[in-house]
Amino acid sequence: MGGNRRTLGLVVGLGGAALTGYALFTLLSSAGCAGSGAESCPPLPGFPVWLVLGILLVMAGMFMGGGVLLTSALFAAIGGGALAVGALGRMPGMPTFPWLFGGLFLVFGLLPLLLGVVLRRAGAAKQAMAGELMRTGAKGIGTIVEVTDTGVTINENPRIVIRMRIEPLDGSAAVERSKTVTVSRVAVPRAGERYPAWFDRADPDKWMFGTDMDESAPAEVKEMFARARAGPGDEDRTESGPVEELSRLTELWKDGALTDSEFADAKARLLPRIGR
Question: pLDDT band at residue 184, thresholds of 50, 70 and 90?
Answer without folding.
Answer: confident
